[in-house]
Amino acid sequence: MIVITTPSGDIGHQVLENLLPSNEQIRVIVRDPSRIPAEVRSRIQIVQGSHGDASICNTAFAGADALFWVLPPDFAANSVEAAYLDFSRPACEAIRKRGVKQVVIVSALGRGTPQAKNAGLVTASLAMGDLFASTGVNLRVLTMPSFMDNLLNQAEAIKTRGMIFSPISGDRKLPTCATRDIAAAAAKLLLDRTWTGQKEVPVLGPEDLSFKDIAQIISEVLGKPVQFQQISGEAFKSRLMGFGMSDAMAQGMLDMMVAKNDGLDNAEPRTPQASSPTTFRDWCEEVLEPVCSPQEANTK
After folding, report:
1. Contacts 24+ apart (CB under 8 A), 121-125
2. What is the pTM of this model?
3. Are 202 and 226 in contact, with CB atoms under 8 Å apart?
């Protein structure tokens, strides 16, 4: 039995899709089962509720061999510690109580770097990994840079203004990965019952790119000029709070971006094992371009 959290989320739904062809029993924890397609719901077990709830975790983890854990976003949280650690503690208790054998979690790069001490959401994510490790469970921590898919949040600016924005320097080359590669890595681990111990597994994408590189590739794929503009940290945080994010979470996002700009994500060696296959150009052609096409824009 494999338990999947966030089965309707960006990564979780792709993990679920990757696991469905297997013979594994699958159980999901989901607040709103209607967000899962009906044909999929008929093939899985559903526990409705939050995976931050102790009773839900205890119910869902009963008889489970493996768990896929993704922290859901809580942009209104009063602190990053509450969002990451307080939310995760009930699951860690249930892992011990129910004897879950293997856990795969989604976390971040940067462990052991000077930047990780004050990297906002990354600092909290690393502490969450430590919390899961403290259970003694066999653990694989998928450590990632920023996701290519995050650029979908700027699709409107790309379509209407030909711009992308970040507080990170346009010249800083960084790894970036596609969520589908994260999901593939997770599914492979969840289907393998042979691994033991605790280990980090980086998923770096195939290349390091700057935001200027990214803007150029988007321009070539869309066939129109797209430029990058670096914005101040103050403007970045203000924009996030304008969307309803709490001061603490917006500051955590900004601290993470500052740490990435200072080299947080560059410390992990790029090896063949750590380099996932989807290039940024591939992702643009297959994911971003359909969203930013003129036909799509005209239907808005």
Report:
1. 121/80, 121/84, 121/249, 121/252, 121/253, 121/255, 121/256, 122/256, 122/259, 122/264, 123/80, 123/255, 124/80, 124/81, 124/83, 124/84, 124/85, 124/252, 125/71, 125/84
2. 0.94
3. no
pLDDT, position 171:
98
Residue whose entry in the numeric block shows the structure tokens 């790029």: 270
Once rounded to an integer, what is the mean pLDDT over residues 143-171?
Answer: 96
Q: Round to whole Å and give the CA distance between 245 and 64.
A: 35
- Which helix (H) or strand (E) is 228 found in, with range? strand 227-230
Give 139's Cβ-side CA count (13 Å radius): 22
Q: Are 120 and 84 in contact (CB under 8 A)?
A: no
Give the chain's mean pLDDT: 95
The architecture that CATH gives domain 2-145+178-202 is 3-Layer(aba) Sandwich (3.40)
| Residue 11 · residue 70 · CB < 8 Å | yes
Q: Where are the domains of the chain?
A: 2-145+178-202
Alpha helices in the chain (DSSP H): 12-19, 38-41, 54-61, 80-81, 87-98, 121-133, 155-161, 179-190, 211-222, 233-242, 247-261, 280-283, 289-292, 294-298
Quick one: tokens of 16?
């679920």
Encoded amino acid at 70, one letter: V
- Amino acid in the structure at residue 170: G
Round to whole Å and give the CA distance between 227 and 213.
10
Tokens encoding 11:
């990564």
